[in-house]
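== Sequence entry ==
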Amino acid sequence: MSSFIVRPSNTDKDPFRVKLTAVSMLSLKLKSGDTCELQSIDFEEHDQKKKKNKKKLAIAWEASGAGMKDTIVQTSKLLQEVYGFKLGDKILVSRSTHAVQDSAVISIEHLGTPSLSEEDKHFWEKYARLSIPGVDECLVETQRLRFRTGIQVTEFVVRDIGDSESLIGRVTKDTRFRIRAPNEDGSEVVETVKQVEFQPVSLGGVHDAIRQVQDIIGRICRPVVKRHFRLYRPVQGVLLYGSKGTGKTAFISALGQAGWTAVTEWKPGTQLKGTNGSEPQLVVVPTRYLSRKDSNGGSSSSVVVGELDKLFEQVRDFPVLVVGEVRHPNDVEQALRSEGKFAAEIELPIPSAQQRKEILLALRGGDSVPDDALVQEMADRTHGYVGADLYALVRRTLEIASDRSESVPSVPNNIRSLGGENQKQINGIEDMASLTLNENEDTANASSTQTEDVQLALRPTSTDLDEALRQIRPSALQEIFLETPNVHWTDIGGNHEIKRQLRNAVERPLKFSSRMAKLGLQPKKGVLLYGPPGCSKTLLVRALATEAGLNFLAVKGAELISMYVGESERATREVFRKARAASPSIIFFDEIDAIASRGRSGSDLNVLTTLLNEMDGFEELKNVLVVAATNKPMNIDPALMRPGRFDNVVYIGPPDLEARKEIFQKRLQRIGDGYRPEISLDEDTDEFARAAAGFSGAEVVAICQTAGEFAFDDDRDVIVAEDIRRAIESTPKSITADMLFEFESWNSARMR
């Protein structure tokens, strides 16, 4: 018995002949036409079980021609398929005393549906008897037969050749064929497969992905599927994809603990050992081998694709799952995303509020900190946060709570006996105090009591969460034009109707989605604010994002313009991609006329087209509100004004009398004793508001600033009414009657 390397035969004629050199034939004491036995080295034990200890026989034949090495055995593609050999495998070849027998009866099974009638069975049995002898010298169990009648092809598989010792039998003119049912007694014994239980409790918010992977594992470990591995190939490659921090690595780590016989981290050149039909294995392909680009910026496909092809070919017919992770499927070479390779692509999406709660509960585990109320608040306030962000947020919240607790002194036990008001004060301190454990406790009871005190002391609050949220931002919004607004509706004077419209555009889809669906209402996609400069357009949008608790992306139109070809379009797409990932969110385009003006050409037109496609293209803009502001609405391309893009067009004009009075009151109340009323604050601000008719909101704020400078110049620490009057007289108006008329004319033309 000697080992040989499997190589392809130069002809498919006589497929069960294996060709060896003259030297090899001599060493094995074989001559052409003798029967030889083949055995796989890597999977010998499994092969013997799988084939009921039947021998894999072939006809030895001396190879013609020169140049063939003595370590090579040439085999046909059919022989490789039915015996489970692969090119490059090492197999054992030995002389066999068991000759290939003439088969008296060969049992075949019909592949496909519907099942054959008795009449059809008789037809195909006779057809096989007449057509196969003289065409196929031998047949092997599991070999597929294709019979063509006209344009129709009917397929069968050989189930039994009538020899209890070998898998191969010779077909003669006396051989009869019998078609049997798939579940007929005497059919192939299917060995059971060790079951893999993938039911992770440490993963939250990914139920859909878990279910999909469970289904895939179930199929490759299911005996009825395994019985037809050669005919039906289940999915054996899973590609997990999703944004940074969505839990891909944690998912694969949990998958690796599901009870596989072996878990292998793959690299080029890896050869799996011990693979067999009853022991499921997991193969993890690192991201660096899946990326289209290698570390030097070049393509790694030429190095990796061929190796991964070999991997999938090696695991074929065995219960092996191959899994990898990437940010996006397009990062993977297209050749690896085909059937037979990474055929299943499963997304781990940005979690919803309910999924965030599940993740937080999974992070908390069996602890009671943070409590359920704070967990719910975290879930509600963390739009766009992924698993990694939530972990960082919980950690930072607990750190802040711990630091706060440490800053409060512990309460000595001997003071606990005090009563009355002192006891109330002590109780208040204890609620926040972090009691230090004594490392040298004398008794276990003392240790237990102090441990409970520490747990009670570490109570993170909403205030701690507020501070943590300011420090931990969603991964999806990193490295982008991000602002965290801290403006509220109460900071803006007047504009009550406009505030209501903006609130409705944001709050209705989030709070009343089911009610809107019943009425057939679609959420607003865009709001365009236009009007003279300084009239609180930007301030209104900041307040909207703050009050609604949404992620806020602020972009000036001019920032998207680049001299490099295609860069402006890429930047625009990136803004929308980040907003989708962090939804619900608001994109605010200030000075949108810089990128969306009518009559543009070249690269400017491409930016406008990109903007239109992102707002109303094939990919739905869900839970993302686009708000834009401009001082020149007449320059904006009309294509942006139709429904489905900027649904609401809102005019933000100069503040009216009430709004100007509110602005004066808010500014003067903010400085407190820094303003000395002449009559009363209410009457003074009423006078100032009337005198400031025609000024914008920004100019009213500037008037208050100028009044403070007048007081400073006069060496006073308080502002008086005369300072305000002087400031009003010295401040020029930027809003003209012609400007207001132009806005009114544009709006009238738009409404026609």
Notes: Residues 102-180 form a domain with the Vcp-like ATPase; Chain A, domain 2 fold (CATH 3.10.330.10). The chain is about 40% helix and 15% strand. The two ends are 94 Å apart (CA to CA). The chain has six domains: 2-99, 102-180, 207-347, 353-471, 489-651, 657-734.
